[in-house]
């Protein structure tokens, strides 16, 4: 009996601008029953605003697969390089800060 889903090779194409990447250090997520919306942004120390660099939209099944892939890769990274320290999240601008 022939395999109904024969293996295939994905050919990933990345244009030059996309290959350069975009640095982000902020993520905001919101969702409804059908989709997740993720805003990736950049916070600059000493500035009270976040610049959103990219917005990604996806469905719950695809998001769960992304989370699993990220989890697997973080585990591999930490096995190779040691634990990643995570600082408790604090306010972007402490109260009383003057710009």
Tell me what the structure shows.
The chain has 99 residues and is α+β, with helices and mostly antiparallel strands. It has a domain at 22-81. The protein contains two helices and three strands. It has a three-stranded antiparallel sheet. The longest helix has 22 residues, at 60-81. The protein is extended, with a radius of gyration of 19 Å.
CA-based gyration radius: 19 Å
What fraction strand?
A: 15-25%
Principal-axis shape: extended
State the distance separating the first and last CA atoms.
71 Å
Number of strands: 3
Based on the structure, what is the oligomeric state of the protein chains? Answer: single chain
Note poorly predicted spans.
Answer: 91-99
Mean pLDDT: 88
Number of helices: 2
Helix amount: 25-40%
- Arrangement of strands in the largest sheet: 1-2-3
Largest sheet: 3 strands, antiparallel
Order of helices and strands: HEEEH
Pairing-aware structural class of the strands and helices? Answer: alpha+beta
Q: What does this entry show, briefly?
A:
Helix content is 27%, strand content 23%.
List the helices and strands and how they pair.
Layout: H1 16-20, E1 26-31, E2 36-43, E3 50-58, H2 60-81
Antiparallel strand pairs: 1-2, 2-3
Q: What key phrases describe this protein's structure?
A:
99 residues; alpha+beta; 27% helix; disordered C terminus
């Amino acid at each position: 009996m022939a395999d109904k889903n024969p293996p295939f090779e994905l050919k990933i194409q990345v244009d030059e601008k996309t290959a350069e990447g975009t640095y982000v250090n902020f993520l905001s997520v919101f969702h409804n029953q059908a989709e997740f919306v993720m805003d990736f942004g950049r916070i600059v120390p000493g500035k009270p605003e976040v610049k959103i660099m990219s917005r990604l939209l996806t469905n719950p099944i695809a998001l769960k697969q992304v989370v699993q892939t990220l989890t697997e890769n973080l585990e591999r990274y930490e096995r190779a390089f040691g634990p990643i320290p995570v600082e408790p999240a604090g306010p972007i601008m402490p109260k009383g800060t003057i710009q």
